[in-house]
Amino acid sequence: MSLALLARPAGLPPPWPDPQSVTLRPATMRDAEACGRVLHAAQRDLASRHGVEPAFASAAVAAARAAGWLADPAFFAVVAEHAGEVVGVGFLQERDEIRGIGPTAVAPRHQMAGIGRRLLRALLDRAEGAAGARLVQDAAAMPAAALHAALGFEVKAPLLLLEGCPRDPAEPGEGVRPMRPEDVTACDALHAAAHGVGRAQEIRHVLEAGAPLVLERRNRIAAYLTAPEDWQANHGAAETAADLIALLAGAARRGQGRLGLLVPSRQSDVLRWCLQAGMRAVKPMVLLARGSYRVPARCWVPSGLY
Ligand SMILES: CC(C)(COP(=O)(O)OP(=O)(O)OC[C@H]1O[C@@H](n2cnc3c(N)ncnc32)[C@H](O)[C@@H]1OP(=O)(O)O)[C@@H](O)C(=O)NCCC(=O)NCCS
To answer: Residues 174-209: pLDDT tens digits?
Structure first.
């Protein structure tokens, strides 16, 4: 849809709410269902316009995700309300020195009225003083791209969302095992070697709540992934592309079912292997950053946040 179709027509009474009648407040657990509705509706609308898959399969799936973030003290969340109804939502993950922004969403019939900008400003105010803020957005999401650029974010890396069960008889994926508490320091060091910043709190958190995997080679942790089946929660780092490929092959062989991950498109060895091993490209996305950012020096995989 062109901007002309999205823009408010001159001289006509706006169907949008008066910005003054929209209020922002911190979200609570009671907002989970409403947040789920808004997240799902905004993503479904975006996906249908661009012929890609929405990030949430249903409003119930989105509400379950929202409930998890709202219950997590490492997340700050804000909602926009109009006439007693939640019409917008934004989340901020505060676990480590880089803040992860998202998801943010505004109900389709309330978009283009400045609500998204107010939500993002509230999240950025809260992130003030952090080393930086990052987010991942659909590459084709024009309003998001315009808004993020206006608020100081820069596009840093093209990504491709890949899903499926990679099969490569030549890559046995040996040395892959569940992450243990004593691996956290090594995994955090791998992240720091790639990005110049650590991510220990998030790695520790997934160790308690999920099923992260590592690749151990010659008594060293050569790669890790925090949630290989769930691209939104999954992030990782590896010493080399070959290490990341071995970890992916091992993860698939461990019978963990379908893998889902965001592959930085410039990591062409990893991308080519995933595609040749039968994974499906779902949609292009991009990583954006505001504040401190270093071009990754090693192989990396971002989550749905960064
Ligand atoms: C991104 C999103 C939250 C923005 O919400 P919103 O309330 O519509 O945003 P706003 O009205 O505050 O701002 C939109 C801006 O984009 C601009 N814009 C929209 N489409 C544009 C285009 N094609 N070209 C240039 N600018 C465009 C608008 O003019 C507006 O800018 P302005 O504030 O300078 O006038 C909303 O579009 C949404 O929910 N999208 C689906 C989910 C998503 O992509 N989330 C972000 C990543 S998680």
So the answer is: 999 999 999 999 999 999 999 999 999 999 999 998
Q: Measured in angstroms, how far is the CA atom of residue 206 from the centroid of ligand 1?
A: 32
Q: Which amino acid is at 244?
A: L
Atom of ligand 1 nearest to the CA of 102: 48
pLDDT digits (tens, 9 = 90+) for 118-176: 999 999 999 999 999 999 999 999 999 999 999 999 999 999 999 999 999 999 999 99
Which protein residues touch ligand 1 with a CB less than 6 Å away? 3, 6, 42-43, 46, 102-106, 111-117, 137-138, 141-144, 146-147, 150
40 Cβ partners below 8 Å, 6+ apart? Answer: 54, 56, 58, 59, 61, 62
Residues 6+ apart with CB under 8 A from 71: 29
Please give the domain boundaries of the chain with CATH numbers for all domains.
16-130 (3.40.630.30), 162-301 (3.40.630.30)
Question: How far apart are the CA of 117 and the centre of ligand 1, in A?
Answer: 8
Let me know: does 244 contact 236? Beta carbons within 8 Å. yes
